[in-house]
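Ops channel
N.P.: pipeline sanity check, posting one input/output pair.
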């Protein structure tokens, strides 16, 4: 991995994501916005498709040998060893309901490692980004970027717990986990999708738990959360974008979260 090549790609992605965010915002709060249902029954709009088309074209114009994988249009293989992982609108349900807690995710991989990520929140005017060894940075509006870091919370009883939706836990048969986490923490709120993970990275929440998570949801978040000093891990404790689920937390909370999830599983098995 060449540090200057990674930095060049990160700076490019910050600009490209800003352009794509402009496209997305042209459709935000549009009363005539059409919403289609994908095969998995999740919604998709012209904003999702248009933003990914814009990003893919920009990437392949600038870095024609890079691979690109996106939620809406699959994978284009390259030969450079770099791979982009795109989610043009993470939180489409929020987007179509006029709720500003949706984001745009651009992850960059090299030789299978998640090495850089951007999460841009178009309606909030925020962007959080990171690259391995370069720290995590948070920019709001026209202000200068500031270093982002997770909170110092070390006990679940003091933690703010975020999740996306109750039905996510229900779909995997783990409503018990949601109940137990809510009871164990100080406060729980459904500030979800990528926004919940960004709240952890910027110290505004202490854990975010996703029972279902695709690679395009997770790839950008791993370097962001880890460069902010946090931990990103699957429900089995691995740091991976392809575990099918994901948790962001402060370092001190990781073992307690995994222990709690395991305790719940063990109690269910004993019934």
């Amino acid at each position: 991995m060449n540090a200057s090549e990674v930095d060049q790609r990160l700076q490019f992605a910050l600009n490209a994501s800003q352009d794509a965010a402009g496209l997305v915002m042209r459709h935000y709060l549009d009363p005539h916005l059409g919403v289609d249902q994908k095969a998995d029954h999740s919604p998709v709009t012209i904003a999702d498709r248009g933003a990914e088309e814009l990003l893919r074209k920009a990437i392949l114009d600038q870095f024609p040998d890079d691979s690109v994988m996106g939620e809406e249009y699959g994978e284009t293989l390259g030969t450079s060893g770099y791979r982009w992982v795109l989610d043009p609108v993470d939180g489409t349900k929020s987007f179509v309901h006029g709720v500003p807690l949706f984001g745009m995710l651009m992850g960059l991989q090299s030789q299978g490692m998640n090495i850089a990520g951007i999460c841009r929140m178009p309606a909030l005017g925020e962007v959080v980004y990171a690259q391995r060894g370069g720290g995590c940075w948070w920019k709001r509006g026209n202000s200068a970027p500031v270093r982002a870091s997770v909170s110092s919370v070390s006990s679940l009883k003091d933690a703010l717990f975020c999740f996306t939706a109750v039905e996510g836990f229900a779909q995997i048969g783990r409503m018990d986990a949601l109940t137990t986490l809510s009871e164990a923490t100080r406060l729980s709120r459904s500030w979800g999708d990528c926004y919940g993970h960004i709240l952890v990275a910027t110290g505004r929440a202490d854990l975010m738990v996703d029972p279902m998570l695709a690679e395009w949801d997770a790839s950008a978040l791993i370097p962001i959360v880890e460069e902010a000093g946090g931990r990103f891990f699957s429900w089995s404790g691995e740091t991976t974008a392809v575990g099918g689920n994901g948790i962001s937390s402060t370092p001190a909370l990781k073992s307690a979260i995994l222990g709690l999830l395991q305790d719940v599983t063990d109690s269910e098995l004993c019934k």
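N.P.: looks fine end to end. The mean pLDDT is 95.
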